[in-house]
Amino acid sequence: MRRLAWLVLLLFPLLAMARVEIHQFDDPAKEARYKRLIEELRCLVCQNQNLADSNAELAQDMRRITYEMVARGESDEKVIAFMVERYGEFVLYRPPFQTSTAMLWIGPFIILGVAVLLLLLFIRRRAKEKAQSLTAEDHLRARQLLDDQQT
Amino acid sequence: MKARFLVPLGVFLVLVVLLGVGLTLDPRDVPSVLIDKKASEFSLRDLFDPDKTVDSASMKGKVWLVNVWGTWCPECWREHEFLLYLAKQERVPIVGIDWRDDDAEAKKFLQEKGNPFIAVGVDPQSDAVMDLGVYGAPETFLIDKQGVIRKKHKGAMTLQVWRDEFKPLIEKLEKS
Predict the structure, then answer these.
(1) Domain definitions of chain A by residue range
(2) Domains along the sequence of chain B with CATH
(3) Which CATH fold topology does A18-96 show?
(4) Which of A66, A126, B99, B110 has the fewest beta carbons under 10 Å from its own?
């Protein structure tokens, strides 16, 4: 019984996440496109969220516009162009590859390349340092230590 | 060999510089793509007369300001006095866009505090607001005689912004 109560309690936060408005589509393909679009577009108010996740009022209106355009049968490109015209490329969660965003896309690979290079250099230098063989003195000391252990 | 121990210090210093620069940048500041582009026309219901509309087309040939505001926005309250000054002393035509607001609240606000706007259009669904690329209030746009957006200011309009950025530009645009 207690367990059930906990279960019910834990489900509550999920209810609070429920989306405010519901958009009806006559065509499941359009609904899929709408869903993909609002995942790809950024909410300008809470900038680390996309339109799908944001409850900001502006995001609601941007979802509405997206819905209306998709329902009218406009292409994805049209919807994206509409948003970019107004809010710039910042509105895209996945920025296009161009000179201003080049570092964004290839930066991580450059860092990875440098890291791999450094690792290789390190390994090669380690390999060159030969393991020194033990001297007779070392053997003697080792023997003594082991004997001490046994007694 | 000693220099090796300086490597972490060097990395640390570079990080400090990068993070320091990061602190001076405002990540919320999205550069507007609409500067020097033609402002899209709007036609909004008049706040004070539901039978009339407020149209951007009627401002053709004038240098004017669009101010996006709402009674829900605290910065707009702060800015209001300065807008009144602009309207009265500087005689700039300002068209207000009352964004996602309650009509009665907005009317009460303007009646009590004074109305700096030559007209106020209501935008309950962000239509005009989205066309202007607005994502927060208040925002103020400067539009020239040809209907081109020349300047945009995010946040409350202040005397300094007005003097440094808007006034010289307006004087230039008035002459052209």
Answers:
(1) 18-96, 99-130
(2) 32-175 (3.40.30.10)
(3) Helicase, Ruva Protein; domain 3 (1.10.8)
(4) A126
CA distance A138 to chain B (A): 28
Q: Which of A28, A29, A34 is nearest to A70 (CA)?
A: A34
Report pLDDT digits (tens) over A48-68.
889 998 888 999 999 999 999
Q: For residues A70 and A76, what is the distance between their CA atoms, to the nearest angstrom?
A: 8
Q: Encoding tokens for residue A54?
A: 């944001």
Q: Which of B31, B34, B135 sits opposite A44 (nearest CB)?
A: B135
Question: Which alpha helices (DSSP H) does chain A contain, by range?
Answer: 2-16, 28-40, 57-71, 76-87, 102-128, 136-150
Asked casually if ipTM beats, i.e. exceeds, 0.90, the reply is no
- Report the predicted TM-score, pTM, of the whole model to 2 decimal places: 0.76
Under an 8 A CB cutoff, do A57 and B100 touch?
A: yes
